[in-house]
Structure formats: structure tokens, C-alpha cells
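fwd from M.: "can u put these together and see what the complex looks like"

so here's what she sent:
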Amino acid sequence: MSKANAGNFLEDFRLGQVIRHATPRTVTSGDVALYTALYGSRFALSSAATFAESIGLAREGQAPLDDLLVFHVVFGKTVPDISLNAVANLGYAGGRFGVPVYPGDTLSAVSTVIGLKENSNRQTGLVYVRTTGTNQHGAMVVEYVRWVMVRKRDPQAGLADSEVPVLPDAVAAADLVVPPGLTLGAYDPIQAGSPFFWDDYAAGEKIDHVDGITIEEAEHMMATRLWQNTARVHFNQYSESQGRFGRRLIYGGHVLSLARALSFNGLGNAFRVAAINGGRHANPTFAGDTLFAWSEVLERSELPGRSDLGALRLRLVACRNQPCAAFPLRADNGRDTDPAVVLDFDYTVLMPRR
Amino acid sequence: MSKANAGNFLEDFRLGQVIRHATPRTVTSGDVALYTALYGSRFALSSAATFAESIGLAREGQAPLDDLLVFHVVFGKTVPDISLNAVANLGYAGGRFGVPVYPGDTLSAVSTVIGLKENSNRQTGLVYVRTTGTNQHGAMVVEYVRWVMVRKRDPQAGLADSEVPVLPDAVAAADLVVPPGLTLGAYDPIQAGSPFFWDDYAAGEKIDHVDGITIEEAEHMMATRLWQNTARVHFNQYSESQGRFGRRLIYGGHVLSLARALSFNGLGNAFRVAAINGGRHANPTFAGDTLFAWSEVLERSELPGRSDLGALRLRLVACRNQPCAAFPLRADNGRDTDPAVVLDFDYTVLMPRR
Amino acid sequence: MSKANAGNFLEDFRLGQVIRHATPRTVTSGDVALYTALYGSRFALSSAATFAESIGLAREGQAPLDDLLVFHVVFGKTVPDISLNAVANLGYAGGRFGVPVYPGDTLSAVSTVIGLKENSNRQTGLVYVRTTGTNQHGAMVVEYVRWVMVRKRDPQAGLADSEVPVLPDAVAAADLVVPPGLTLGAYDPIQAGSPFFWDDYAAGEKIDHVDGITIEEAEHMMATRLWQNTARVHFNQYSESQGRFGRRLIYGGHVLSLARALSFNGLGNAFRVAAINGGRHANPTFAGDTLFAWSEVLERSELPGRSDLGALRLRLVACRNQPCAAFPLRADNGRDTDPAVVLDFDYTVLMPRR
């Protein structure tokens, strides 16, 4: 038997199976610097310890890490066990961010298989997992459900279990985690870089984030390795040159972080990602593509017991090689997704109120 | 009104206007590592805590950051307010570095508009700003004047003010900041990597820095994002492919840091940049270009009250795709700049004396 | 005389000469993050402070650095003195890793010339150096012999000395440094990501590491600059376009670190590199190449006084644009090296025993 890990195939999973993922990861200010270099994020909370201090979220003089950085590290741990033989990463649901993560924290990930279903072709099927990322104290830092289409090793193999879980449309405002200690009395919108507060956004409002950013092979590979994500399609031009697209595919999370960074221009006070309600990598992205993004405000929610802080549910759409002044979403037939759309992401942020 | 920031146009500026720039930034050892990876700098002071300790400049066991790293972070903060609609970044003057910056410090920037002038075409004009970067204690870390050519939103709009400031040719030696605590009794030129001290340089001397370094798109974009510089021309191949050059332009500061790193080979004891007297990005630089650099010693100055330390005023010239053994500067007509020259920079360094 | 360093030529070296290399270097968590981004390493010991703590190797709450990161930093320091005028880096021998290195440590390097021999063409010759890297307390962190072919400045010049040193085939198990404090009672193979211990490997066993990784120009140049390695062939496309290969050559250590990271898949519990017995960069590697790797277990050795820990001597072979399921090594003639092989490396790791 080879000592190299070939990953799990569909028939290797069992409903209720709990998988402790390898390679705990201590995150540091080195990761923070690379995140800034790769995405250019400007949200003040993760940029400046002084700003974090001013709203009660500094710890030992340090700012918390960007929420998506935390998501990527946790996601990366799951790849060797869950999606090494995946055909596609299909969706996310029920994602919540927990306690903030600081330089020096060590993150680990555990997944539970909550759904399994063979496709009618018997070549592939769906695996649903709920993944929980924790810090070195066991506190939840992020949890989410994702489902992937996974190959079978043997098309004739049967599945022990078959179940499709019921997933929530969105995370309820009452279930969002407000970071302990957060106080907004000294929140400075000039430092944060935006005059617009929760009160200034309305459901249905659309924002073109204007800027475009071209992706290079070296960038997405450095990012994906930084998250210790081992999915082969991102790294191996030798094999991908013979594959479906002839090129390396970019990790969907790289696109997500670029779109979130672009969204600063219009959503500068969205200082905290609180939930991932859903999301879809609608089309593949490749090196050389220029990404643009736009947002739609889906819902504005109050938070229990907080008059200083509200939640905005947002749709974040990223397009390749297509500026977003016209908010591209649907194809000409009005039903399919516009082929320029690469990401359609439904998430919830926290924002100060007036 | 769109919530995305479109930047200021010429008619939006007022003489004397004070602009507090967004996004304070905590710099860390992550930034230091990236600076080394991007530029390959070998100046011992920012490379080793032990070396910094030996000359009295370590703080809590850490070396100070490279001076140009500090400049780039402060410069980056000013872009969304000053130069988002700039046609060109025309020059620098009167720049001084103040207290050294250490990992963990948080930098902020404030600019004052000190000059405004419309061009005769009424489409554009000049904006002069004095920018001051400070650390979390309010101490000046770098200050400088720069001027940019900025578009008007409306060619018919008038300007409230018009004034061209008088700028100094160079920063006087008496105005240079010597970092507090600096002592050179234990300065080790073997560790520093150069046997040449202040006394060994003569005005008029030229040094070819020999080495060449080719620039990649991923590198200059990672650098420019690291400084949270949002100028569009550096990132968006989709729009630049239709622009003047058909390609992304490289941030001039990236060229400056590469040239400074190349200058180590001949100026290894120039451990501290003390002043930016002037500077010009003479021609654009693109990915794929190979940079070379040469220096000329313009002036050797004593420093008040210091017999261990002197100032060298240097001209640093960077060329693209042109080795510098012949010290290229002027075009064949003897008047224009050689088209290979991309940077002509006048700055002052501190160097130990024998 | 030019103040730029032209490097040493063959006739500049003397047998027994001791060279203190410039530019001490403080390594930080920024270097660790970049190492992960560049190579995607997943060995748990350098990934997580908690894991390091569990086996007695954390210091002030931090994990030790990857051993090869330490090697690259020390190697980089030697380049300006030893190999700036090298035609080729020919081999390694007698390498040992000493005390672990932690973020905040400052590394320095000293080399002794232990061999010199002119080639019959009188244009070039061999220089053998023993290099020792130390931390800020003077403790050895890595030491090794390497030999390079170096140009002569003047073909007519004579050599003061001529001697070819006798080099060991391998480092004996009794000479390996086991990091002080190492205890394996709480070693968790699930966190480490591999169920295979020292006992499970047998001499002669070959492991295909399966995955492939494509190299970009920006990546190898950022890495090589991070190690402050100034060898010109890696950076200057302008001059290399006129050279032997028409392209920039990739630093052999970059290939080594990629191959070691690939080897995680099959050798996940090889948490510590203890020795470099030998090694050869068999062929050049260029940007765009996809690297694959395989390993052969050469020898399994007990360690004096340790029943919890053993040593594995491994051959690590990296190939360009050639998957390694067939363990490529020899060319069709059965004697020469397969032209796909770029690295043939003989090293020793520490691994837990059952």
C-alpha cells in the first residue's frame, strides 16, 4: 500500500462520521501581512491595532485577523480529507464566525458528515459536511456547511447511507456572534474610510465597487499554499494542461477574498463578517482574469440588545473581465447565470449604527 | 449617490485644506519579511536585531523597519484622497525621516494642501501636498511634499485658490533627524557588508551597482497592495489594456525600493535614509523590465555635534533594460532624459565616519 | 577601484581561510508565513505552536522554524563571498542541523575554505567550504560542506594551495543532533497527518509523492531574495536572455524546499531534518516547470539512548515535467541521470517510533 494519501472517495464516507483534520496552524502577523499583500484589504479593524483597541477588540495590543483569513485556514485543513477527489465545490450554508482570532492563536478543524447522496450516473455523488474551526482553547472561530461533488473509487460500490440535509436559507440575526467586548462609542469613520453607517443602507440598494484587479498565477498559488490547501487543480499545470480547461483553476476562496477587498469601496464600515448564508462559485476563474465586484443589500436587521450595531445581509457578486456598473447577474435568457459571474455569495456583516 | 469613493478632482481641493487619511496601519515583522522577499534588501540595520542593538537602535529586541517601507505605507494612505484621479505623480521635495518605526507601531497620515494650479488646457492641474506620517504616539516618522497632476471633474469649474509653493532644493544637514540613541562605537563593517565609510566617498564619485533585477506582475502588485495603495493603473489589466501603454504601470515606489536595494552593492554602510530632497519617475516601468541602478555622490556633509556620523547626499538613478556601467542619464541631445532612465532620485543617507 | 563587490575569484581563496559573512538576519513569523506560502509545507512541528509544545519543542509559545528555511538563510549569506562567480554549485556533504531556530533568533554564517583545486583548463576550479550557521548565542544551527566551480579572474594566476578534502558519505546516526527537550509521549499522528511511523518504513522502499507543483518566476525570485541570496542567474532576465539557457535559473534550494513539501504526502511524520548527507542539482529548473518528487528509504537507524525516535536516511528525487510513479532516476543508457531529474538529495530525518 502506498504511504501517499489518495484522499477519500464517495464510498469512504459514512453519515455521522467525525473527521479530525490534520495540521493545526498557528496564525501570525506574517499571515496578516501576506493577506494584505494578496488582497489589499483596507478594513481598519484588521489593519490597525489602535483601531481594534478603540472598539474594544484588541488583545495584547494586537488587532484580530480578517475573518476570511480564518475561514481559508480552516477550509484548507479539510481539503485532504473531504475534497481531494472532488469534481466541484458546490455550495456553502449556515456559516457563522465565532470568537475573533489573533496572531499567535492555533486553529484546528473537525468535520462531521451530515449528508451523502449518489448521483444517478454512479460515478460521483454529494458529500455534505459541517466543519467547525476552533482556536487553541477549543472556542469556535468559524463553522459552516459545505457540499462537494466527489468521485467514487469504484462505480459499482454501494453507499452505506443516503441523506440530503435540510439547510437554512440564512443565519438568523439572533444567532450571529457579536465579538465580546465590542463597543462602538469611539468608532471613527474617518479612520475607517467610509461615512456610511448601517442606517444609510437600504434593502435592494446596489453598489458597484468600481475597481478591477487582475490575478496572477504566483498570487493565487501562494495564497492557496498559505492556507495549506492541497487541491491539485490549483497547482499542477502539467496535469491541468490536459484537463477540462487546459489551465490551473483558482481557489474559489481567493476570488472571495479579492471581492471582499474590492467591496471596501462602498462598504468600508462592514468591519466584521458574521455569517455565510450561502454561496456559489458560479464559474471558474483563471490567472490573467480581471475581477470586478458589486453588492446588493438583501436585508437590514437589528441585533438583540444592541442599538449601536446592526447586521446587513449582502449579496456579493464577482465578475471576470466585466465591469459591474450594470450589476451583471443573469444571462440573456433571464434565467441562467451571466457567464461573467464567477461568485455569487450571500453573507452578513456587522456595521455601526448612527 | 454612489457609496463608492470616486476620489477628489482638482476643483475639490482647497489651499490649506487638511486631510486625515483613512486606514491606520500596524506594521509588523510580516511586512519586514515581505519587504525582504520583494526587494532583497541587505542593509544590516533592518535585517538583524543584534546589529540594531549594537548601534543603540533596537527596541524591545527588534530592529527598526526599512525607511522606505515606512515611506510606502504613509504614501499608500494618501492615494485614495490625493491621487486617485491623478494623471502623473510629478515630484517630491523636502522629505525627512523622523523617529524609527518598529514592528507593532501603527502609522497614520495627514496631508495639507500647500499648492494648487490649473493647467492652461483646463482639463487638469497641479496639487501640492505636504504629508506627515506619525506613529501611535503622534511622533513624526516621515514627512514630505509631493505634487501630482490631477484631472478636473468639470473643465468649466473654477479653482478657489491658485498658488505654487516655494520648495527647498534639499534638506539642510542641520534639519536631518539622527535617531535618538544611535551610537557607532560598536559598528561592525564586516557584518554590514561594506568596508567603505563616509570618509571614503567624494562628491562627484559615481558607482555602478552592477546587478540587474527583473520585475514580475505578481511582485509589484503584492507590494503595492501591501502599502494599501489603490491607484488603479497598477492592478487592472482589463482597463489598462485599453490605456496609454496597454499594460499595468508599476508603482514608482516599487522601482525606488528595488534601486535602493541594488545600491547596497557599493553603499552598504548607508544604513539610514534621512531625507528625500527630490525625485522624479522619469519614465514608466512595466513587468518584464530588468532594472539596473547607479549612484552619484552629490555632497558630503558633517552633522552638527557628531564626529562619528556623516551625511551623504546621493543621486540614485534607475534604468530599465540598460546596464549602468556608463552611468546613463541624458539622451543623445544632451538635454532630455535618457529614455532608459525610470527614476532620478535625490536623497540623503547617514553613514558612519572613521 | 569600484566600491561594488565583484565577488571572489578562484585565486582569491586560501586553504584554511575563514570568512565571516555579512548581513546577520533575524528570522521572524513573517519568514515562516512566506515559507508556507512559497512551499505549502504541512509538517505539524513548524506549523503549530501547540504541536511543538506537545513534543517539548516550543519556546516562549512559538514553534521552531522549518529546518530548510534555516539552511537557506545561512546559505544565502555565503553567496556574495563564495559563489558570486560560480559556474555551478556542485554538491553538499556532511551537513547537520543543530539547535532549533525560533522567531526572533538572529542567524550568522562563517565559512572555512577546506579545499581548492584548479581545473585543467585553467579557467575555473573547485572551492570547498565548510559553513557554520549560528544563532545569536553562538550555538550551531546548521553546518555543511559545499563545493562550487568558480571562475578565475586571470587564467594565468597560480593557486597558493591545492587540496581536495575527504568527505563523509553520510552523517553517522551517533552524530545527529536530537533537539534538547524533545519528548514524543504525546505525539499525535492525526494532527501530524500521517499514520506511518519509523517502524513502518523499510530500506529500499520507494514512495511516489504524487502531487505536482508548477513554479512561477515571481515565486522563486521572492524566495531567493528572502534568503538574501544574490546569485545573479536567478534575477536578471536581461543578461540571462543572452546566457546558456536564455532564462533565469531557479535557485536549487527552492527546488529542494518544494520537493521536501511534496514529500509530506508519504512522509508526514518526518518532522525534523537532521542531516544532509549529500546532494546534487542534477539539471537546471526554470519557471513554468512542474515539479514532482519521489523518495527512497536508504537506511533505518536507531538513535543512541532513544527508543521513541529513529532516523531514516532518505533519497529525495525531484523531476521536472515528469510524474514520479515510475521513480525516474537513470537515463536510457542506465548510467547517466534521467534528464527529467533536477535534484538527487540524500538526507536524514527524525521520526517517532511506535
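replying to her w this: Chain C has a mean pLDDT of 97.
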